[in-house]
């Protein structure tokens, strides 16, 4: 009887702690000042976070390049704002920085999935993309043919960056094939680093978006990315739910870049299939 009372008291205390934590988180979020286009224009600075890879930005010789980097530069010219670009490997930290006004925009190839649309706003689609399985070619893997049937991924270990958008698709894929896929979320490695590890034989499989894999294959001919993990997806940049005016502004700048041909020029430079 005494043990039961103690157990009930512990459950009640735990419930109060959970409720208190929820209230504190709500109050913390409530204290975050509004930051939409007017506030950004007043400061004169647009803070954008992206990934350090061929899709985001990277250093080539003595200059910076990258699909999102060049789009950011073009937007700076269109908007008259100072665009500050921040590199961040972690998707989770990127979203946290967005929520707390550390960043105004996440400039990455983010699938426009319903789970994220509930909490964030997406720009007009920038890229048509899909998730692919990265593995070694038969020539680079002692004649072992690459996996082509998703059913053959049962009991296989797939590596992705921590908090990668691919995680949602992989969980769904497990249900579709009716078997376990071992998913390893790597906190220290980007998609580019994981693909490089596949090419070197350090790991067997990785999952990344097709455009990234295609770009990396030019330097890593050992990789094969012809096995699809997802259907073709629309991918875009992300802003806060509380920044609808910034969203409209971004879409207007993108439309302008499309009309004058700058967007197509940048896209072909990084995503040409040739």
Biggest beta sheet attributes: 6 strands, mixed
Low-confidence stretches at least 5 residues in length (pLDDT < 50)? 16-29
What is the straight-line distance between the termini? Answer: 76 Å
Strand proportion, as a percent range, falls in 15-25%
What is the mean pLDDT?
Answer: 88
Name the helix and strand elements from N-terminus to C-terminus, one letter apiece: HHEEEHEHEHEEEEHEHEHEEHH
Which structural class matches the secondary elements? alpha/beta
Number of helices: 10
E-strand count: 13
Q: Residue share in helices?
A: 40-55%
How much is the radius of gyration in Å?
A: 22 Å
**Shape assignment:** globular
What is the topological layout?
Elements: H1 2-30, H2 37-43, E1 45-50, E2 58-60, E3 63-65, H3 67-79, E4 82-87, H4 91-99, E5 105-111, H5 114-117, E6 120-122, E7 127-129, E8 131-136, E9 157-161, H6 166-177, E10 182-186, H7 191-200, E11 206-209, H8 210-217, E12 223-228, E13 233-240, H9 244-259, H10 262-271
Parallel strand pairs: 1-4, 1-5, 9-10
Antiparallel strand pairs: 2-3, 5-13, 6-13, 7-13, 8-11, 8-12
């Amino acid at each position: 009887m005494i043990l039961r009372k103690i157990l009930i008291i512990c459950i009640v205390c735990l419930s109060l702690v959970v409720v208190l934590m929820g209230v504190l988180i709500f109050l913390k979020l409530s204290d975050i000042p509004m930051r939409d286009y007017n506030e950004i224009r007043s400061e004169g600075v647009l803070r954008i976070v992206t990934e350090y890879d061929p899709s985001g930005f990277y250093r080539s010789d003595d200059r910076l390049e990258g699909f999102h980097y060049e789009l950011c530069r073009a937007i700076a010219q269109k908007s008259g704002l100072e665009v500050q670009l921040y590199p961040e490997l972690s998707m989770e930290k990127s979203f946290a920085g967005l929520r707390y006004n550390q960043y105004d925009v996440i400039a990455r190839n983010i699938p426009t999935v319903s789970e994220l649309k509930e909490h964030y706003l997406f720009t007009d689609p920038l890229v048509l993309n899909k998730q692919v399985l990265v593995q070694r070619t038969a020539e680079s893997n002692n004649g072992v043919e690459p996996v082509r049937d998703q059913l053959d991924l049962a009991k296989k270990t797939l590596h992705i960056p921590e908090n990668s958008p691919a995680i949602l698709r992989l969980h769904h894929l497990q249900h579709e094939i009716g078997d376990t896929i071992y998913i390893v979320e790597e906190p220290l490695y980007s998609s580019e680093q994981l693909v490089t590890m596949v090419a070197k034989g350090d790991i067997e499989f990785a999952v990344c978006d097709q455009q990234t894999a295609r770009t990396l294959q030019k330097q890593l001919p050992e990789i094969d990315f012809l096995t699809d993990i997802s259907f073709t997806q629309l991918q875009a940049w992300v802003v806060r739910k509380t920044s609808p005016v910034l969203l409209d502004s971004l879409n207007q700048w993108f439309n302008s870049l499309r009309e004058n041909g700058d967007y197509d020029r940048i896209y072909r430079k990084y995503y040409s299939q040739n």
